[in-house]
C-alpha cells in the first residue's frame, strides 16, 4: 500500500446511496454527493466522529488493536480513519491541533466546563502496536499537550493512533497555561 492509498487526510467520505465521494454541505453537519446529489447527515460516534462510509476492502488499512478494516470518517469535517469496533482513530499528525481547537470551540459555545483529568495508566506505555500504513512499531508515549493521555505515533508516516476517549480528554483538558482560576 502506498501512503496516498490510506491517508486519512485524502480519503473521501463515500455516499451511502451510490458510493461516490461526497463533500461537506456548507453550514450544516451534512454531506452532499456531487454525482447523485443525495444529501445525508451521518450519525455522530464517540469523540465527535461522524462515520461517512466503509473503507474500500482493496485499500483498507486494519485497526492496530482489533484488526478490523478502518472506515472513512470525519471529526469537525476533517477526514480520519475510524474503527467501529474499538472506536480508535487514525489521523495525520498535522490535523490534531485543528481538531482540538474545533472541539474546544464547540465546547465553549455549549458552555461545557473544562474536565478534571485523572492520571494515565503508565502500563499503557508498554503496549506495542503496529502502524496500519507501514506496519512498523508505533512509538507509545505521553501526549505533549494537556489531557494526561498516552498516544501512539508513527514518525515514518506522520500518523497518530488515538484510543477511544483520548481525543475528548485532550479537547476537554485545560490549556497548559490555564490554572482554572479567574484572572487576578
Characteristics of this structure?
184 residues; alpha+beta; seven-stranded antiparallel beta sheet; four-stranded antiparallel beta sheet; flat; disordered N terminus; disordered C terminus
Total beta-strand segments:
11
How do the strands line up in the largest sheet? 5-6-7-8-11-10-9
Low-confidence stretches: 1-11, 178-184
Mean pLDDT metric:
78
* Rounded Rg: 17 Å
Description:
The protein has 184 residues and is α+β, with helices and mostly antiparallel strands. Helix 2 packs across helix 3. A seven-stranded antiparallel β-sheet has the order 5-6-7-8-11-10-9, with no helix packed on it. It has a four-stranded antiparallel β-sheet with strand order 1-2-3-4, with no helix packed on it. It contains three helices and eleven strands; from the N terminus they run αββββββββαβββα. The chain has one domain. Strand 6 and strand 7 (78-82) form a beta hairpin. The protein has helices at 3-6, 96-109, 166-172; strands at 13-14, 21-24, 31-33, 39-40, 49-53, 71-75, 78-82, 89-92, 139-142, 150-154, 159-162. The termini are far apart. Helix content is 14%, strand content 23%. The protein is flat, with a radius of gyration of 17 Å.
